[in-house]
Amino acid sequence: MITIVDYGSGNLRSVQKAFERLGATATITDDPNVVAAAERLVLPGVGAFGDAMRELDARGLVEPIQTHVRADRPFFGICMGLQLLFETGWEGGRHAGLGLLEGDVARFDIAPELKVPHMGWNTVSWRGATAARPPVADNGYFYFVHSYHAQPRDESIVAAVTDYGGPFCSAVRRGRLFATQFHPENSQRLGLDLLGSFLASA
Question: Going by CATH, does the domain composed of 2-92+102-201 fall within 3.30.420.40?
Answer without folding.
Answer: no
